Structure formats: structure tokens, C-alpha cells
Amino acid sequence: MRVLGMISGTSHDGIDAALVEFTPTDGALHGAVEYTASTPYQDPLRKRLIAALPPAATSLAEMCELDTLIGQEFAAAAAAAVEAAGPVDLIVSHGQTVFHWVEGGRALGTLQIGQPAWIAERTGVPVLSDVRARDVAAGGHGAPLVSYLDGLLLAGLGGTPAALNLGGIANMTVLRGPSDLYAYDIGPANALIDAAVLAAGLNPAGYDAGGRIAASGTVDERLLAVLLDDPYYLLPAPKSTGKEHFHGDYTARAVASAGVTPTAADLVATLTELTVRTVARDVSAAGVDALVASGGGCHNPVLLDGLRAALPGVRLSTTDEFGAPADAKEAIAFALIGWCTAHGLPGTVAAGTGARGPRVLGSLTPGAGPLTLPAPLAAPPEALTLSTR
């Protein structure tokens, strides 16, 4: 079965796509990653999206228009993937998260936009979307959903390995045994850095390319102490967060509270160190001995070198070593979720999200023809291997 997974993450900079051909064999599953791509949002659309995100006020009219425009962007990315790599049996669209509703340490709702009907109409392929909502309805956080993929990929490592995704938000899956894991959102990875870069006009693309800005600055310890004092970090797992909490105004309030006036470069350096400190603290507390990273933060040497220095006894690698390109891991994870849903299998690990149990995820939008699913499978795969073609 050939499945195209697509997602725009909490960095809201564009659409990551991965086409994976899944083949089950003797209780295991092999995925051949045949295509990956990253398609940036057009600048006017990204500016509209940023302007509508919390803590800004917006309107239902703006949400309706963004839902359509982002759906059309996803449709174009899906059509490009099919044209480049051939037909697919199913498309999984995570869409774009615009709000994640968490109160009292519990997720009460989550909203992703990017109307899937545009994808189905453009490609003629059935589309699985709204993949987080069922887990939230079952008492989970709906995040991090990559924990299902992480558990299968890292199961053979032994010791206490962990998968770390450095997107807008840093999330981690820790394996305590072959079928024993937990996962949660640690805190910001690139979210605050990107907001600071964009606000200061240091890079129109809105990120610290190659960590050069952070490398030119100096960490402000007074500001860092205020940032580290956030009560979120003390909450027990499972937990989730997003840009509803960690956004540009959050940083401005922290700067005012610290009574400092950092340069733009010093601010970026401090926010980068915040990610290093919070991730390293949780990795150490979990007794992790092998850390496998993915996400856009893998391209920031200041961030990765900081983690290596803070975690001298931990082997740090990327998911590329496991057949999952670091920039495409989340898209691969959603392709896997689509394969599971199509076969009637849960795509979650309850301990990874805090739900009452694993759930079959998503809502299906038919393609051009009748909606036909494979015969359900009685049991999920016990192992997964990935290769890149």
C-alpha cells in the first residue's frame, strides 16, 4: 500500500510530505520511503496565518478563508508528489494546527485546518484527516502522535533510547522496554527562536539558518532564569503544549520580567539555550543513553552541539540512521498512521498521549471513486524497518 503523509508543523513554515510504500511480512512491516519534499508556504499566506494565530484575535471569516487556502496548498503539494513519484492509495493530511486547547494539564480540544476536500478533488485519492481529535476524545493529548512510529523504530536498540523531535515544539518518546514507552512535549524547540528572528527582521524566512544568529550572541542568564521558571516544565507527562503558550508575546513578557534589554542576537542565543537546557534536563532525568533526533532543529549546530555538551554520556544521532530522513519523520509517521487506519488498527500508544487506550485515528474523505479499504488486520505489526529509495 502506497501512502502519502503530509504535515505542516508548529513552525507553520510549509508542508512536509513523504510517500511510503508499506509491505507487511510475517508480523513485521517494511516501509520504503520513495519520495520526500518540503514545500514552503507562499509568503502572503504565511503572514496571514501568523497574524491569525494566538494570542492574536481572529474571525470565523479569516478561519474559513485560511482553511480553504491551506487546503489548496496541501492539494498542490499532494499533486506534485503523485506527479513525481506515481499514484498512491491513500493520502494522510495532518493539516495546520491553529489551536491546541489545554487546561489544567488536560487537552480538551485541538484544531487543524486545511480542508481535505481540496486534496481529494485535486488528486482523486481518498484523504485521511483530523487525526488528533479521536485521541483527545479518548482522554489523550492528541500529541505527540509520532510516539507510535518511535516505538517501532527504536525497539531494537536496547538500553533506554529516546526519540527527540525538534520542530516548533520539542517532543520526546522514551523507551523503557520493547513495549513500554512514554512520550510528551518538553517545551519550545524552534517556536520562540523563530518568532524572535521574524520580529527582529533578521531573516524573512523566520528562522535562524545554521544557528548563525545564536552563535553571534551571548546567553543572558537573567532572562534564561525567568524562562526556565515556567510552571509547564514541572508538569508530569503526558503533557502537550504549543504556540498558544510559547509565542512572541510570551518572550516579550519574560524580557520585561527579567528587566533586561538583550540585543536580537543575544535573545536568539538565550532562546536556543532554553531549548538545550530543558531538553538536556529531561533526557538526563529519564536515564536516556541514546538520543535519536529529527526535525528542523537538526540543522542548527548551536542547538545540537549544546545538547552534546550537556549530555556527554548520551549518543546523539538522527533518524536518518534508521531510514527516516530527519526532515520527513513526522510526515512518515502520518503515512504510517494512515496505513494503520486503513487496516483497522490503532495508530497511537496510550502511554504516549495519556488516552484511555489506543484508537483508530482520523476521518476519511472519499476520492474520485468508491471508498474501498483493505481487509482489517487482526494485530498490529511488531516491528518496522524503513529504507529510502
UniProtKB/TrEMBL annotation:
EC identifiers of the protein: 2.7.1.170
Pfam family, one: AnmK
Name of the top EC class for this enzyme: transferase
Gene Ontology biological process terms from the UniProt entry: 1,6-anhydro-N-acetyl-beta-muramic acid catabolic process; amino sugar metabolic process; peptidoglycan turnover
Keyword Nucleotide-binding: yes
UniProt entry keywords in alphabetical sequence: ATP-binding, Carbohydrate metabolism, Kinase, Nucleotide-binding, Transferase
Binding-site residues, ATP: G9, T10, S11, H12, D13, G14, I15, D16
Domain of life assignment: Bacteria
Listed GO MF terms: ATP binding; kinase activity; phosphotransferase activity, alcohol group as acceptor
Family from the record: Belongs to the anhydro-N-acetylmuramic acid kinase family.
Function: Catalyzes the specific phosphorylation of 1,6-anhydro-N-acetylmuramic acid (anhMurNAc) with the simultaneous cleavage of the 1,6-anhydro ring, generating MurNAc-6-P. Is required for the utilization of anhMurNAc either imported from the medium or derived from its own cell wall murein, and thus plays a role in cell wall recycling.
Protein name: Anhydro-N-acetylmuramic acid kinase
Organism expressing this protein natively: Streptomyces hainanensis
